[in-house]
Amino acid sequence: MFFETQVKVRYQETDQMGVAHHSVYPIWYEEARTNFIKSCLNISYTDIEKMGVLFPLSKLSCKYIKPALYEDVLTIHTFLKNVSPIKLEFEYKIYKNNELINTGYTEHPFVNKYFKLINIKKQNLELYNIINSAYKN
């Protein structure tokens, strides 16, 4: 299962050449990831945090294939690549006019409010099942 998010490259996201700066891709990944969670899991990041569960970014990979330019409309496909009781892994594919221009990956451990690693399956089985069902679909 993947979820689709569209972003438009804004002027402030570009460099002197009019190319989207490398630093904005993780921001686009985050927007796509939060949209995925809200739409595919039917729960908001805020609601998950209220349950005492956080999943900060611990690993990021980004491969630039072709540039995105000012005012390009990009489509981000977000996939839940892997789910385990201790972490989530997301994969991103960014397209411009149906052409793949970027791929990315993020990893997010489950932690409590003190940033101590937790086993989500033991801490909150209901949330684990919600996440796992989206992964299997």
Structure in words:
It is a single chain. The protein is 28% helix and 33% strand. It has 137 residues and is of the alpha+beta class. The protein has one domain: Hotdog Thioesterase (Thiol Ester Dehydrase, Chain A, Roll), CATH 3.10.129.10. Strands 1-3-4-5-2 form a 5-stranded antiparallel beta sheet. A hairpin with a 3-residue loop joins strand 3 and strand 4.
Helix-strand blueprint:
Elements (H helix, E strand, L loop, with lengths): L1 E7 L16 H16 L4 H6 L8 E6 L8 E11 L3 E10 L2 E11 L10 H4 L1 H12 L1
Antiparallel strand pairs: 1-3, 2-5, 3-4, 4-5
Gist of the model:
This protein has 137 residues and is an alpha+beta fold.
The biggest beta sheet reads: 5 strands, antiparallel
What integer value in Å does the Rg equal?
16 Å
In CATH, the topology is named: Thiol Ester Dehydrase, Chain A
CATH superfamily: Hotdog Thioesterase
Residue-averaged pLDDT: 95
What does the overall shape look like? elongated
CATH C-level class is Alpha Beta
H/E element order: EHHEEEEHH
Low-confidence stretches: none
By DSSP, the count of extended strands is 5
Strand content: 25-35%
Which bin fits the share of residues in helices? 25-40%
Strand order of the largest sheet: 1-3-4-5-2
Do you know the CATH architecture?
Answer: Roll
Distance between the termini: 6 Å
What key attributes describe this structure?
137 residues; 33% strand; elongated
